[in-house]
Amino acid sequence: MDNRFPLKKLVVIIEDDAAIRMLVEEMMTDFFNHCVSFRTADEGLQYLASVQGVCDLVIADYGVPGALTGADLLNEVKQRWPEVPLMLTSGYASEVIEIPSHVLFLQKPWSMEALSQAVRQVSFKPL
């Protein structure tokens, strides 16, 4: 990790694919002290409500199972906790009708470098 970027505390990851979820968790240890991940946006929102939105980044896949899509979750987070940086991913860009301006979008499949750059862009400002 580039030491110009201070280590952040917590990232919340919403991804239904277990292999991708584990990969993102592993990568995020370069940037964050703790990673919390969920299979559905509903579970992620429940967790965020329980901690009153205290986190440094939310990364959500668009097409997760449950009542909420990843985009629904990010819009709810933006309304409740507007200071939280948000990132949306999807392998099906055509299903993501409109990407809100407050959300950074990363098309799947992404490379590890592309994910790292996106995290830096949305979460970190050089010292």
A few lines on this structure:
This protein is α/β, with parallel strands linked by helices. Helix content is 35%, strand content 23%.
Helix/strand-derived class? alpha/beta
**CATH H level: which superfamily?**
Response regulator
Unreliable runs, pLDDT <50, ≥5 residues? none
Distance between the termini: 14 Å
Shape: globular
Rg, Cα atoms, Å: 13 Å
- Count of helical stretches: 4
Helix-strand string: EHEHEHEEH
How is the largest sheet built, in terms of strand order? 2-1-3-4-5
- The percent of residues in helical segments reads 25-40%
Average predicted confidence as pLDDT: 88
β-strand percent reads: 15-25%
| CATH topology annotation | Rossmann fold
Whole-number total of structural domains: 1
Number of strands: 5
How can the largest sheet be summarized? 5 strands, parallel
> What is the correct CATH architecture?
3-Layer(aba) Sandwich
CATH top level is: Alpha Beta
Organism: Pseudomonas eucalypticola
Pfam families: Response_reg
Keywords: Phosphoprotein
InterPro entries: CheY-like_superfamily, Sig_transdc_resp-reg_receiver
